[in-house]
From TrEMBL:
Domain SWIM-type: 424-456
Pfam families reported for this sequence: DBD_Tnp_Mut (PF03108), MULE (PF10551)
Keyword flag Zinc-finger: yes
Organism name: Cinchona calisaya
The keyword Metal-binding is annotated on this UniProt entry: yes
Lineage: Eukaryota, Viridiplantae, Streptophyta, Embryophyta, Tracheophyta
Alphabetically ordered keywords of this record: Metal-binding, Zinc, Zinc-finger
Stated name of the protein: SWIM-type domain-containing protein
Family matches, as InterPro entries: MULE_transposase_dom, Transposase_MuDR, Znf_PMZ, Znf_SWIM
Superkingdom: Eukaryota
């Protein structure tokens, strides 16, 4: 069987071969096109016989063709001396190999044309290629005036306001001591659709955290998130600041309290890490709210000094308790196994790209698409249907009902005795259990479920509305509107 990588019978000859080899051949050997990386790499066009300097150059040309046409390429064979590439769901394919005795790579077979369509996600367009594209622009114009960047940020923010009326966008700057251009200080953004979705479908629980921004500008990103019906993170607001401290957190919380109209603080729960500036700001701005610490943050610092699975299990048992006596017992067990413990703060890093405006665009696009994806998922569900994570928790509690013995006391009240000897009181009418997990999560615990089974009623009736499809849809129903690019922005010169 003839190889698709070619042989002497292919009729493909290198232009370096002497035409005197075959004196009886009256035809001249064809001279094949030599690929020029500088001019041809922008839009590679392949031909049978085309020559490349190396296998590396040929691979780069294939990937450039994939990116330019918006198609995903796959290398079925990827060796130092031969390559075969195909496009997924397409008849287009190409094969190339090295010329014998030469450091030249030549196309031996090419099947055209393309029969596939463009794709949304091109895996060949990776971070390295994108960075090369940006850096080439920066090399051509390395001294972009600061005033142009400030104007660009102002135009970005004005466009966000236009696309999403009712959004809160606050940009603050500092006066230059030398009388120059104002210096960027901090920026707060709370998009109206996210604000409305959170207030419509999420519980009054806020998680606050900050992370470092990688890139030439540095700084930190402050975030406020909620939790949706499926126990997934729901973004509410974010801010760009120079450093995570008491002043910036107080400023952030002041704006957030206004946006969420937090008046009855005792109805809200705030979850944070142990960062001192953040804790102090919460105590000042939300003194009446329930303040809790994120266990994941605590554990990531806890394990630095206390390694091993035993202490890890103890810590998470403490966090999972739902009533005071159980918590105290678990804490006593944890303290007995350790003499010292340190609970600090965790910092992650977010790559914010080359400049501030690019980073803002990345965040905006992510939020816009995230809302749409979750909205589509909600619309496919049946009314009253439980989300996968919620359903999984319910099933887990169902499996634990075999250790419960319910006794009816009358008026929808039950006494639940466990095999372990523990005993709890369940009130189905008030939807409470002295184990308190039902009260905290809105999902019946195994004690409550055992009582519900006695009534022969549907379990879904006792799941709180905040855990059902309708609440989820209310959270993601608001649309983060698409924003125009720089080409469509008016040059207002407005100061934000």
């Amino acid at each position: 069987m003839q190889s698709e990588y070619g042989s002497d019978s292919d009729g493909l000859r290198s232009p370096s071969e002497s035409s005197e080899e075959n004196d009886d051949n009256s035809r001249k050997q064809p001279k094949y096109h030599v690929f020029n990386e500088k001019t041809d790499m922008k839009d590679p066009v392949f031909k049978v016989g085309m020559l490349f300097k190396s296998v590396k150059e040929f691979r780069a040309a294939i990937r450039a063709h994939s990116i330019k046409d918006g198609r995903n390429v796959r290398f079925k064979k990827n060796e130092g001396k031969r390559i075969r590439a195909i496009f997924e769901g397409c008849n287009w394919r190409i094969s190339a190999s090295t010329e014998q005795g030469e450091n030249t790579f030549q196309v031996k077979r090419l099947d055209e044309p393309h029969t596939c369509s463009r794709v949304w996600n091109n895996r060949n367009l990776n971070s390295r290629i994108i960075s090369e594209m940006y850096f080439s622009d920066l090399r051509r114009n390395p001294n972009i005036p600061a005033s142009e960047l400030v104007d660009k940020i102002n135009e970005d923010l004005n466009e966000l306001r236009r696309a999403n009326p009712g959004s809160t966008i606050v940009l603050e700057d500092l006066e230059d001591e030398n009388g120059g251009e104002p210096i960027f200080d901090r920026l707060y953004i709370c998009l109206e659709p996210l604000k409305r979705g959170f207030l419509s479908g999420c519980r009054p629980r806020i998680g606050l955290d900050g992370c470092f921004l990688k890139g030439p500008n540095g700084g930190q990103l402050l975030t406020a998130v909620g939790m949706d019906t499926n126990n997934s993170i729901y973004p509410i607001a974010y801010a760009l600041v120079g450093v995570e401290n008491f002043d910036n957190w107080s400023w952030f919380l002041g704006l957030l309290i206004q946006d969420l109209k937090i008046r009855e603080q005792e109805k809200w729960c705030v979850i944070t890490d142990k960062q001192k500036g953040l804790q102090s700001a919460v105590y000042k701005k939300l003194p009446g709210a329930e303040h809790r610490h994120c266990v994941q943050h605590l554990y990531c610092n806890f394990k630095k000094l206390h390694k091993g699975l035993a202490l890890k299990g103890r810590l998470w048992k403490c966090a999972a308790t739902s009533y005071v006596n159980q918590f105290n017992a678990e804490m006593d067990g944890l303290k007995a196994e350790m003499k010292q413990h340190m609970l600090g703060c965790l910092t992650n890093q977010l790559d914010f790209g080359l400049d501030l405006t690019s980073g803002l665009a990345v965040l905006y696009n992510y939020l816009m698409q995230r809302m749409q994806v979750n909205r589509d998922a909600a619309q496919k569900m049946q009314p009253g249907q439980l989300w996968p994570r919620v359903f999984k928790k319910i099933e887990k509690e169902k499996n634990k009902t075999n250790i419960c013995i319910p006794r009816c006391a009358g008026r929808h009240k039950y006494q639940i005795t466990c095999i372990s000897g523990d005993q709890y009181a369940v009130d189905l009418e008030q939807r409470t259990c002295t184990y308190r997990r039902w009260d905290l999560s809105g999902l019946p615990c195994n004690h409550a479920i055992s009582a519900i089974y006695r009534t022969r009623e549907k379990l879904d009736m006792y799941v709180d509305d905040c855990c059902k499809k309708e609440a989820y849809l209310r959270s993601y129903e608001p649309v983060v509107n698409p924003a125009s690019g720089h080409n469509g922005w008016p040059k207002t010169g407005l100061v934000v």
